[in-house]
Amino acid sequence: MKSVTVAAETPYPVLIGNGSLDSLEKVLADGGGAPKKILLITDDTVHRLYGEFVKERLETISPVEVFVVQSGEAAKSFEQYYAILTYALEKGLDRKSMVAALGGGVVGDLAGFAAATFMRGIPFVQIPTTLLAHDSAVGGKTAINHPKGKNMIGAFYQPKAVFFEPQFLASLPAAEMRSGMAEVIKHAMIADASFLSWLKKDLSAVMNPNEDQLVRMITEGIKIKADIVSQDEKETGVRAYLNFGHTLGHAIEAALGYGRITHGDAVAAGMLFAVWLSEKELGADLSFTKLKTWFEEIGFPAAVPEELTSEILMNFMLADKKTASGKVNMVLLKEIGTPVIHSYLPERLQALLEEFRKEEIV
């Protein structure tokens, strides 16, 4: 089993490997003891596959209540958040209770925000079941969506621990595995050229990784994120580098309607635009054409959806949290492993996006 410590204001462990959840009781004991009650939040797909198994494991520690949401990004809504708080009150949870998030990034974000705000904050743990969640489960960003933007209502709230068991990834559809791979690639591109080279070396490892390869990808990605979070827990500086590919990616998700495209596919399109910008604006040598071909081989959509105009996407980018003083902040790369923030006036960025999209068609 691998272990990575996230050096947040209150450090916590990320345990990676099958059987990692067996360490929960010790983690809780080190943190003051077992909770009075545990609220297990999951989605209907994950509940059907792993809900009873995890519930039985948690019940060896404390009584467990279960709240199930529908699978998909639409669950990150105010209505579901409110329903969770109502359920928690009805079931008698109090300040000595705990939330356990079993699922992917949607469940983790939703459950974490509920934990952050229930009775001004109760502990929670993350039990990810997707590759994508290796990013979202670490770092303490919790949120729900608003029709005008993704993750617009939320809080920084760190978990007590993260338990990542690769066995839970076995049932992932190919599209969801690919979605998570986009975040693995993102971490490599902003921080580790050798890790990126390893990913590029074997296409089968990226498209259909075995357990050892998965553990390495998860561990390396979490190490990179943990290092950045330890420097900048509240995203006032270098943590913004983790938004590489997300400025356009989030705009695509919001403009299409949540759930129409996976997060990873949207971020992949955003990364290609950021790499193209990096070469055009910074003179970086990032082999854009080869990267685009690799993305296409993996199965990522290499183009921005045709039905979305550049103007519509620009409006969503302007509404994003990463916008400041009327300018849109883009994470670009001087080289692999060296990210920088570049600010654009909306008119300039929209023109560049339009130029990028025209080049895609040629």
Give structural notes.
The chain is an alpha/beta fold. The protein is 48% helix and 19% strand. It contains 14 helices and twelve strands. The protein has a seven-stranded mixed sheet, with helices on both faces. A three-stranded antiparallel sheet has the order 10-11-12. Strands 7-8 form a two-stranded antiparallel sheet. Helix 3 packs across helix 4, helix 6 (174-191) packs parallel to helix 11 (263-282) and helix 13 packs across helix 14. It is globular and about 60 Å long. The protein starts with a strand and ends with a helix. The model has no long low-confidence stretch (mean pLDDT 94).
What is this structure's SSE topology?
Elements: E1 2-6, E2 12-16, H1 24-30, E3 38-43, H2 44-59, E4 64-69, H3 78-90, E5 98-103, H4 105-117, E6 124-128, H5 133-136, E7 141-146, E8 149-156, E9 161-164, H6 174-191, H7 193-201, H8 203-207, H9 211-231, H10 246-256, H11 263-282, H12 288-298, H13 310-318, E10 323-324, E11 327-335, E12 338-344, H14 346-361
Helix pairs in contact: 3-4, 6-7, 6-9, 6-11, 10-11, 10-13, 11-12, 13-14
